[in-house]
Amino acid sequence: MPSAVPNLEWQATAIADLLAIEDYISDHNPDAAQTLKDKIEEKTSQLPEHPKMHRLGRVDGTREMIIHPNYIVVYAETPDIVRILRLLHAAQHWP
Hints:
Elements (H helix, E strand, L loop, with lengths): L6 E4 L1 H15 L3 H15 L10 E2 L6 E6 L2 E7 L3 E9 L6
Parallel strand pairs: 1-5
Antiparallel strand pairs: 2-3, 3-4, 4-5
């Protein structure tokens, strides 16, 4: 019997990261900001189907999905939930 697909959950910190990135980019190029936001949402929506597809994270218990050379989604997974923890610029350090 196939296992259930985990739910996708965004932590408040990750949502704040997304909004801050979108706001910063939209100051210079609103179309680019919307394109990046759409790409992030589309790629993260696929995480529950393939949570182990991306590299192990720099912090134990996490994984990292490179969305764009400059942006990384940090997430953790359990059998029930894929939890997006942060959305970072590649130059940022976490935690």
